[in-house]
Amino acid sequence: MTTTAERPRSDTPSLAFTSMTAWLRDIAHSEPERIGLREKEFGIWQETTYAEYWELVETAGMALRALGVEPDDKVAIHSENRLAWVVSDLAIQGIQAVSVGLYSTNPAPEVEYLLGHSESKVLIAEDQEQVDKALAVRDKLPQLQKIIYVEPRGVSTYDDPMLLSWEDFLELGRRELAANPNRFDTLVDGIDPVTTATIVYTSGTTGPPKGAMLSHSNLVWTAAEARSVIASGEMPDEIELLSYLPLCHVFGRLYDLAYGLAARATVNFAESVDTVVSDLQEIQPTYFPAPPRIWEKMAAGAQVRMAHASLTKKLMYGAFLKAGMWNADRILERGSRGSVGEAVHRIGWVFVYRSLQRKIGMSQCRQAVSGSAPIAPEVLKFFMALGVPIVEGWGMTETTALGTINQLDRIKLGTIGEPLEGCEIQIADDGEILARHPAVFMGYFKNPAATAEAINPEGWLHTGDVGEWDDNHIRIIDRKKDIIITAGGKNISPSEIENRLKVSPFIKEAMVIGDRRRFVSALIGIEFDVAANWAQRRNITFTTYRDLSEKPELIELIGKQVAATNAEFARVEQIKEFRLLPKELDHDQGELTATQKIKRGVLEEQFSEIIEEMYS
Amino acid sequence: MRGRPGLVTAYQRDMAIFPTNTQRVWFAAFALVMALLTFVLSDDLALRGASAAAAAVGAIGLNLVTGWAGQISLGHAFFLGIGAYTAAALGGETGGPLIGLGLEMWIWLPAAGLVAAVAGIVVAPIATRLRGLYLAFVTLGLVFIGEHIFREWDSLTGGIGVGRSAPKPILFGYDLSREGSFLGFTLSAEQQYLLFALVVLLVMGFLAKNLVRGRVGRAFSAIRDRDVAAEIMGINLARHKLIAFAISSFYAGIAGALLWTFVGFIEPRSFSLTLSIVYIAMILIGGAASIMGSIMGAVFITFLPRIVDLLSGYVPFIEDSPTGGFLTVSQVEQILFGLLIVVFLIVEPLGLYGIWIRIRNYWKAWPFSY
After folding, report:
1. I need a labelling partner for A111 at 20 to 30 A (CA). Which of A210, A371, A613, B300 fits?
2. What does the pLDDT look like over A107-154, one tens digit per residue?
């Protein structure tokens, strides 16, 4: 098997289980009645116990065997987060096959690339939309044998021998399981922890996505580590998680699947990306990880609604937000609020924080994490002021999302925190962060050159992030390849400026330009909802996104936000010119990755006229 | 699932009368306070309270047929009358010139409801044929027919200007109209009336709440919002209108029996169009399609004379003697009554309950405004 031995492993850590599937089996046997999953159907959260969860995994695993899936075969999952996703994933890993996750927003050409590159034999597709994408490109995918669809609507009328419904698939599994009741258990017992469990494709801000191979031991070690790190000792017995981060992304997989099992939590699947806000209010998760985009949006949402509140409410909120900010500073300085600060916080909790936390779904949250991209310190401080225990962490696909995190009593804003226990972190001479720990990935699938480039012979992973030590904390400067060197020879970190810009509720996207240029400029995309609301209140008429972006009043407003950002940066880093993007950026059109990161190269090419105009 | 009121895992909880324990505790506390109040209120206030509670039962009944099922009924006075006279006939003294069987309260109170319900069932088929204004007119006719019968049927009602006494409220040998002791406290007749009326209101209120949150109640709302659409959804219009009228009349019957028992005397002219209008006012001021609203409206209207009385002490041009002054108390009462209906319809169509909802939403949205 070529997938297992691309990197010599000197140490195999001691593991609680050999695979996540074995871990699930353990819970199903020791606490069968505990609620494992919840999925909303017709307005009600339908519950699945751990015992039922395990039975589904067993059934799906045997069904895959019946379809001819052998160890080391690849099975792709193309779906939003839902019960079928996690069941399939654990079933695939259980029969020693390899799971591959696809983003539901992946367009057909990317589906073709990912299925083809991973050599997937079976595809588990969510609905008609995803089935259609696969059918459109299946002629170029000779190894694809079967497509299983979860939602029958629209697909059940298709007459295609390649298609199989989820129900029929499970029925097949039930028959297979009845014939060989112990087969699945034997397969799970036979898992070698250092073989590939799953391939996670990186989002690919440059070039085609690379498939990072994660082993069973990577996942199990990560899960155990996450459990011991997350608010250790503070967690209640019943932990509620909201699964909305894409499961095919390592961040989502770590928290919803790995940590979810390790903590014996209940994983609630969000209805869709659009309903996250209301789902949050209902679930009030105990632990909540989110990328900066979500935190920015939540903060902006609260601020916009607050701006429309009545005077009493505004005054109350203003006073206690100020008190909260004062408290946040105390936490940052000395690690806790202290007795006076605590008293102030309690009063504020009665009047403002409690209800506000409820509105944003953070009332039961013991720890919240921002990760996957740098976040502006102002946003973190806003949530700290409301009493949400939020910290920034850092990890990447290649480290199974583990790396560093700020401890609640030792938060340093603007840093990604301290290395986790068991994680070795180093900063190379050129400033690049190097990582070595048992969750560092096995290598890129079918790409030994890239693997060799990423992991050096001593096992250190080159993360591609440039950073520096700040006592025990690490401050990230930027992605190595994103750092701008102006014509004057000055090094500038664009993401720092971009994040400061995105603190404004009116700004959704920002791309700072200036590499080998005379000065720094920026392309800015407005947050349409907020800007539209603002315009309506001022009686500015507009029709489309583009029309609104061209309104002089709006350009003036954004100009003020840019000026406010500039005030916080050195002269050479200040944005001298900016333009508003004429359209909303989109994954479908290749402007964003599936995780909503901007693809700089694509944007620079697409908007080259606008950019040149700024420099002419 | 503590601290997560929004995490609903079963429809039972979604439809619960008290979705959270907090609400249950608040309601229990409120009920306890009301019960304790009966021990300390003056007789005058206790009697008014008892009348308000009985009127609330009637208002809930009218709200079921008008507020939920959307069938405008001006005939509520007729059903109240049937209840009152059924009670009087069954519970009245035997051997007198008037019909009287001398039965106990546990028989005549439910019977008053049942007889009124039967009358409702008889009327209901008209409602399946008529809508809106036409139905209102037919039910108006009902009041006139009722008034005529009550006036002419001397052996039942005693006739105009004579009337008859109300039935004796004797429950399993215990006479509520006589001073008695309860848990070591001495309770006057009025206080016992209030206690009894509150219990009846509690039971009838919960029954109504259960009805409207269930299948039948949802069918009522569907019929109110658009009867054609409701029928297309498979709701049997004739059946549900029948149910609405029957249950509404049952509530009216109970309310009529209780109210006039508390007053002690039944005069045939009481059951006029004005009485119907008073009940319509209760549900409009209180809040259409709301149990709490019905109760608030009934309490408000019943206590209106007391409020005006209080005003007369402070406002110079209101006199409480029937002749002197610029305005008499009863004139002010009439004016206020009319004014309130107009103001509520224009400013707060959801009634007192709507005001309560707005106060609640203010705190619910805190610290936002929406």
Report:
1. A371
2. 898 899 999 999 999 999 999 999 999 999 999 999 999 999 999 999
DSSP letter assigned to residue A50: H
Q: How many domains does chain A have?
A: 3
Q: What does residue A340 show for φ and ψ, rounded to 5 degrees?
A: -65, -45
Task: Give the residue on B whose Cα is nearest the Cα of A242.
Answer: B7
What residue in B sits closest to A310 (Cα-Cα)? B369
Residue B305: cis peptide before it, omega within 30 degrees of 0: no
pLDDT tens digits for range B235-248? 999 999 999 999 99
Same domain, A429 and A496: no
- With respect to residue A10, please indicate whether it lies within any of the assigned structural domains: no
B160 pLDDT above the threshold of 90:
no
Closest CA to A127 of A104, A160, A102: A104
**Chain B residues near residue A309 by CB distance under 8 angstroms:** 367-369
Cα distance from B282 to chain A (closest Cα, Å)? Answer: 32
Considering only CB atoms, which chain A residues are within 8 Å of B368? 302, 305-306, 308-309, 313, 359
pLDDT at A289 over 70: yes
Q: Which residues of B touch A282 (CB under 8 A)?
A: 4, 6-8
Chain A residues touching residue B8 (CB < 8 angstroms): 43-45, 282
Task: State the residue for tokens 């069932």.
Answer: B121
Question: B333: helix, coil or strand?
Answer: helix
How confident is the model at residue A3, as a pLDDT? 36
Give the minimum alpha-carbon distance from A50 to chain B in angstroms, rounded to a whole number: 16
Residue of B9, B14, B364, B366 to mutate, interface with A, max A Cβ within 10 Å: B366
Q: Is some CB atom of chain A closer than 8 A to the CB atom of B133?
A: no
Q: How far is B188 from chain A (nearest CA, A)?
A: 45
In a domain, A201, yes or no: no
**Token pair listed for A584:** 């909303």
Q: Which residues of B touch A356 (CB under 8 A)?
A: 367
Q: Are A530 and A602 in contact (CB under 8 A)?
A: no
Residues A364 and A384 in one domain: yes
Cα–Cα dist A574/A597, whole Å? 23
| Domain range enclosing A186 | 20-191+232-279
Q: Is A363 on the interface with B (CB under 8 A)?
A: yes
- Give domain status of residue A114, yes or no: yes
**Amino acid at the residue A237:** D
> Counting every residue, how long is chain A?
616
Q: Which residue of A has its CA nearest to B12?
A: A44
CB atoms within 10 A of CB B35: 14
C-alpha distance from A565 to closest chain B C-alpha (Å): 28
pLDDT at A97 over 80: yes
Pair of tokens at residue A341: 């600060």
Mean pLDDT score across all residues of chain B: 90
| Torsion of the alpha carbons at A245, A251, A252 and A256, rounded to the nearest 10 | -130
Torsion of CA A392, A396, A399, A401, to 10 degrees: 50
Contact A462, A228 (CB under 8 A): no
Q: CA B36, CA A230: separation in Å to the nearest integer?
A: 51
CA distances from A146 to A123, A150, A165, A589 (A): 6, 13, 10, 28
Q: Give how far B233 is from chain A: nearest CA, Å.
A: 19
Q: Which residue of A has its CA nearest to B6?
A: A282
CA dihedral angle for residue A420, residue A424, residue A428, residue A433, rounded to 10 degrees:
-40
Contact A400, A223 (CB under 8 A): no
CA–CA gap between residue A142 and residue B44 (Å, rounded): 92
Do residue A45 and residue B369 have CB atoms under 8 angstroms apart? no
Per the domain annotation, does A205 fall within a domain? no
pLDDT-wise least confident of A6-10, A206-210, A482-486, B48-52: A6-10
CATH code for position A113: 3.40.50.12780
Share of chain A above pLDDT 70, in %: 97
